[in-house]
Amino acid sequence: MLLPDDSMSPRMKPVTDARALFEIWAPVASPWSAWAKPALFTYLPEANSAPVERIPWTSAGAIPLGSGRHAVVVDLPSVEGIACGLALAERGFRPVPLYNLTQGIGKEVVAVDPLIAALHDGADRLQGLAILDDAPPAFLLDSNRHVGVAAPSMFDNRWMVFPQDFPSARALMSAGVERVLVIRREGAPRVDLLSVLRLWKREGLASARFDPSSGETIDLAMDTSLLAVFSAHLSMMFHGLRENAAGGFGGRVPVPQATSGGFA
Amino acid sequence: MSEPEVFALIVSLVVGFIGWGLLAVRGAAVDRRLWSTPDGRMRPGGGFGCLATIFAWFSIGAVVFYILLNFAASDVKPDAKYIVLYLVMGYAFAAVNTIALRVYGWKVPDMFERRNRAAHTLFYTATLASVCAYAGANIGDGPGFYVVIYCAALAHLGLYTLVVVHAALNRTVYRILVDRDRGIAFRAGCMFVAIGAVLGRAVAGNWPGFEAATGDFFRLGWPTVLFVVADTIVARVALSREIDGNLWADRVMGIVYLLAAAGYILMLGAPV
Known about the structure:
Chain A is an alpha/beta fold and 264 residues long.
């Protein structure tokens, strides 16, 4: 298991309550905490879980933030997103975890344990940072959120984001945000994130994509017509993912019954 | 009760239980899992899931029950079986309404998980609009339950058409669900209630036959278009760059819509 590089902070205290862990990642003082997703924070890593290998996120210094005030959307795979979020926290951003998946019975399509362990482990490092209350947000996503095939008896916890999972462009701009930077490696953003960026663009908030592998930054051009918004709205309505009755995404894929039908 | 009435009762029970049951279960589960402490107490901001459903449930029951006891057909008022049938049908229509709200863009997590107060307002007012439309269909004498279904369906169809037109002309959905603007949610919600009430009045009265009932619906219900036109103008004139920037102006406009609807209904007088 990979986790962000970390050193023991003197303020570090072991977090034993899932809700306390949520309070560290989404403190009441931050205006962006209202958007943090609590679903993943209802779990704590098991005490006897395997030791984790820590990785540094070295590209943080290369992120081209320029002189203006940015909001960041981190769309990197699994724990790399959390590692990047913590690196951004050191640069004055408030990481806002938007992981909206759950655990359940059966093999998970999207691995949850590494994320839980990384959030738990990263909380110690986050507690040691003095992030301003009005710090700009860095929204954390897993770019693998929609990757994988859900076979019968598996726990299908693939998930997606909706425009209402993010603050509006109006809210971001009134907080001084001038531009949104999407940190993503694998090509253009997925359709769910794209629909969020499209609505922001319609409200006057432009976005760009930064690829940490190549160090390249590309302005994101997108169709902002009403037809594009409407078709995205329809595709979001019929997303085909399994919502969990207790919040977040995740549900067991039913096993087809082997029955014999017809007349003997 | 006849066989078709029993069938209508069973279908309504199933639709009502599925719609409202799933909502209640989800609200309670989210409250328990996400917003409760390890010792079972509710965190600040939690508890909305159960309360939202219970509040909506009682509101629907109170309005429909009052209308049935006072304005329903003469053979319905004294008969508990029919009161139950039409009450359960009311819950079924309101359950279908929660599905229609999803087309509008509203999602259950907007209330329970995202704790968006504007989405709460939208849900309550849209439910009340549906209840008003359904309650009107229960006023007056008629040959059977199918005319209540026809009139309620007609009123709901009109309501949904105008809501979709309003959504296409304005950015209200975005302002409510993403901006979480409580003022706009209240104003738009009051407009939906006003439309629901007028359309409910348009289908109220003694049953004159399908053609005449449809004619009455258009003849008496057309002023609802004015609400959409007025709110589109208000939305464009009073467009604020701030979230909740026009909170009080929006609240006043919402009440103006309700008063206008009440005035129109009073002007029409008791349905015949």
